[in-house]
Amino acid sequence: MSFSRDVKEELSRTPVPARHCQIAEITAIISICGHIVISARNQYSVKIHTENIAVARAYFTLLQYAFHINGEISIRQNAHLKNSRVYTVTVNDHGSAIRILQATRLMDDQQEIRENMSIVNNVIIMQDCCKRAFIRGAFLAAGSISAPEKSYHLEIVCESERKAVQLSEIIKTFQIDAKIVERKKHFVVYIKEGAGIVDLLNVMQAHVSLMDLENVRILKEMRNSVNRKVNCETANLTKTVNAAVRQVEDIRYIENTMGLAALPDVLEEVARMRLKNPDVSLKELGAMMSPPLGKSGVNHRLKRISEIALALRGKEEERK
Hints:
This protein is an alpha+beta fold. The protein contains 11 helices and 8 strands.
C-alpha cells in the first residue's frame, strides 16, 4: 500500500464528532470529486466518483452522521486500468439531495446551484475546526502524497483556478505555504517542504501518518548529516595528503639539487622530519619537533621550503 493510501485510510477512520465539521468535509468532497445531476423531471441527485475505497467509505459514513442518509454504493471496473475499480456513492432521493446541497451551501434557497469560493464570508468554514475538515475532505477527494523515503511532495488537484485559490488560502490560514501550478487543464495545490507536509498532516489530524513521516525525516537527516561529515572529512584528508605529497616532492627536489644542509637550520629540521613522516598532519609533525612547534609554525616553514623549491625550478628552466 502506498503512503497516500495509508494517509487516506487513516483519515477515513478519523472520527468527526461535530456536525458542522462533517458538513465542511462533505462540502469539500462534493466540490472536488462530486457531480450534481438534474433529471428531465427536474429531480436532483448527488454522486461522487473515487478510485479509493477509503474515500467512498468516509463519504458514506459522513452522510449517515450528518444527514441520516444512506448513499447507494456501486462499483465498476476502471476502463483504463484493469486492476483498478471506481466507487460511486449516489444520493438519488430528490429531497435528500436538496438537503445536502443546501446544507453545504452548494445550492441557495431558490434551489439555484452556487458555490461560495470565499474563505471570508463562507459560513461552512468559519471555524478553524471546519477549515481542518474541509482540507481533509479535499485531500481525500483529490489528494496524493509521495513516499517520504523518495521525496517530499503533497498535492491536491482542483478542476478550476478558483477552487485551487480557495483551498490554498484556507491552508495558508494555518501558516503553511501552499502553492498553485497549472497542469493539464487542472490546477494543483502543492507543498514540497517536509515541514509543511508534516504541519498539514497535523491539521488534517493524520497523526499516525505524521509520525511515520517524521521518523523517515529523522533518518534521512541523520544520513545526510553523516554523509556531509564523511564528505568533509574525506575532502580534508585528500587535501592533507595532496599537500604532504607536494611537500615531500619539494624537499626531495631541494635535496637532489643543493642538499638539505644548505637550508637554514629551522627549515632543514622540518624538511627532514617531513621526509621521515610523510603521512602525518601538520599538528602531529609539529609535536615531533624539539622543541614542539605549532601547526601554523610548521605550515609557515613548509611554505618557505616550497618557495625555495619553486625558485630552484625556475633557475633550472632558465638554464634550459
